[in-house]
Specification:
NE0471 N-terminal domain-like, alpha+beta, 2 domains, Double-stranded beta-helix, 7-stranded mixed β-sheet
Amino acid sequence: MLDTPRHASAPSAAISPAIEAIQIDGDRVAIAIAGRQARFSTRWLRLACECETCGDTASGKRWLTPADVPADVAMVSADAGKNELTLTWGDGHVSRHGSGFLAAHASGAAPRFAPKRWNSDLAERLGRFPFEAVVEDDAALFGSLRALRDHGIAMLTGVPAEAEATARIAGRYGPIRETSYGKVFDLISRPDARVAGETARAQIPHTDEPFRYSPPGFIFFHAIRSGAGAGGTSLMVDGFHVAETMRAATPDLFDVLTRHGVTFHREHAGEVFFSAEAHVISLDATGEVTGIRFNDRCLAPQAAPIDRIDGLIEALAEMTRLICDPANQFQHQLQPGEALVFDNQRVMHGRTAFDPTLAVRHLRSCNIDRDGVHSAFRTLARRFAPLEAETVLYQGAIF
């Protein structure tokens, strides 16, 4: 019995271009597909087999290993149907690859999503989504996940100003991450504040908890009460825009923040003592910005050779100046019934000072792990936008 092909029915092959021609040249196979020329390694094609015998990489029930495919693996024949390539190997094994799968991998590089950067102009582009639609309708949820992918931030409207609504809406995006501050926590100004979020003081836009090895991925700010006219305006900054501004204007300082470890810490005596060293700006393998980790209030005394320490401080100072520039800030007074969800490893958040004697500012907040949100996006993309499901998303502050 012939092995059952998996790639032929994979979601990535939902749109099936035609295979027009095929040519074998030693250990390379040239395929004309959908008007494009693509070349594949025969070893890659053998390793990519996901028949019943070789197993499925997506589920993890995989039985073929890279060591099982020798460098001189022999291909006996290659037969091209309209939408499927059938390969027969020297040991008699048969592999089948759908044309959609081959087209998706024709470039030899995984497609990468390019984020849409913004500054104070975000108000014109901010995605706004009704609470009830996101809770009840997967298509609406996918729309909001697309906004998070594109701009790193989205707004939910019509959210009940009730404590229970926070977890209800956040849970649609992925499992809520519990930290030392709890699962869902209240940000209300207090005279005995443990953290800056419980004061009425202004806060420079920042990423939360950079002192953790893995900072929160996405954050929800759900407004229960707010004091319109009494201050407390939210300030949101696209860290990717700031980073690219630095790359263009002060490349030497940008380089420092991508290569030099910066230490962040947080200690509550006798309870927790977190400390992490990481790059402020993370780059992926192609050199693109993939994550930001910055909080001026959590900067530990930095360690660097004497001839480098001033340069490091100046790089941190330049980033701070850009973050504080109103031209780079989206400003919004959150109202009861609104919730902001944003990428904590891209979008920095802060606020103006407010007078707690004039109004009570009460937000509820919780964190969702980054991979959970991206998993939700990819899962729904399989249904609503199959060609977007395989795109590599920016993976955050990972270095």
